[in-house]
Amino acid sequence: MTQAGHKPAMSAGQIWNMSFGFLGIQIGFELQNGNVSRIFQTLGADVGELAILWIAAPMTGLIVQPIIGHLSDKTWSPRFGRRRPFFLLGALLASLALFVMPNAPALWVAAGMLWVMDASLNITMEPFRAFVGDNLPDRQRTMGYAMQSFFIGTGAVLAGALPWVMTNWLGLANVAPEGQIPETVQWSFYIGGAALLAAVCWTVFTTKEYSPQELAGFAAAEGAAAGARPASVQRSAGQFAGGGAVWIIAGAVIAVLVAIARGDSRPAFLGGIEVAQELYVLAALIAGFGVIQLVAAMLRSQGREESGFMEVVSDLFAMPRTMRQLAVVQFFSWFAMFALWIYGTPGVTAYHFGAGDAASAAYQDGADWWSLMGSVRNGLAAAAALGFVVVAAKIDRTRLHAVNLLLGAAGFAAVLLIRDPELLWVPQIGLGIAWASIVSLPYAILAGSVPPEKMGIYMGVFNIFIVVPQLLAATLLGFLVTNIFGGVPIYAMAIAAASFVAAAAATLLVKEQAA
User: Fold this and answer.
1) What is the pLDDT of residues 345-361, one digit of tens each?
2) CB 3.0–4.6 Å: which of 143, 218, 244, 494 could bond 294 by disulfide?
3) Helix, strand or coil for residue 77?
4) Cβ-proximal residues to 256 (8 Å cutoff; 6+ apart), any chain
């Protein structure tokens, strides 16, 4: 195992143990995704406020994942390894957040706990992506990420079913006094927190990691077989400064336009269009990216290259071609998924159950049913993930992913077309297949295109293209739903369907490339 050579294959049992922690991670994410809008509405949030309240989730991912990727690349302990210390730390914090969240006494507390919970889950999740790339040879990576996808689906099934099980099997109260979280949600979070910690600990204590020296030996052998890796082109201080100025000006222009549109003397051509204050967040994000580039320009001009900040920013602009192409795919894919998470519960409860009051029994029943449909979706995703291992051997991964995304688009459209809530399991077929594909195939394609010594940082950078569309969704979806669809949340599914179609088209342009 310590001699230089090609990375050996792992057994199915080893891949199982290596991926098992994702069961717990996804239990945490699914409880968050399926119940946070419900908690916010129960604590008094209006439907129009949900998108901006959800901004915590992508914002923490944007900040945390590249940092954790960089740190885990630089970490090594003979006893605890490279990625596993981050698994354990994140799991401990996320479990604590899951215990606190359903006891939030006010909306601002729940919003704050979403920041803590999502940051903790990201600390645990990001190194898991790099973990597969570290441990598996390229020929097994599709299987490795498919196994992660299987556990993502299984964990989501368990988490999605928990509130329904608490109500219908255990008889816990599903309705609480106004402003209080029902017992069903509270106990679902308690059980989920314990399961998350247990699953991650299983992976931590049953899996070994290669040392940096062993990985360097594997990389040298694989590099000699594949030929020399092209050197990345470094962005100059002037290029950073110029790009930063453009982004800052663009952010300032958007902020001014939003201020004019929201002012007392707004232009007449805007008519009845409601310009939400959330668009200020979009302006700040654009300008913030410019500021990051200006800081990088200053550090580069001063020769201060030895910092994690410069390494992350430089790697962002030196991404391999395959990664750039996949970034477009990820953008449209995750924009659609965030629409599902934000507007799924309020959309279904209003459109299929006729319930607009979050304190009503009809709303809580509808929320439970939609959560159960999430379990159906994720159960299908778990089954589809295992199928990908077989199908990917007969069709290239990019075409397979494109087909899966189109099935997902059909699923989003079906949510709108089906009015009988008992038939909402039908759209979950396409959505489940697409979800399994999103969390496995892009990573399998990416892992073979990035340098092994930068696996963690590039997985973290890659996740920027997950959180940026979520940030845009948090700032734009409310505007689009309000002004195009009259504030009816179910029509966010139409936006999601169009976004999946765009992602499928972008997938067909991806060219796999060796690192």
Assistant:
1) 889 999 999 887 777 88
2) 244
3) strand
4) none
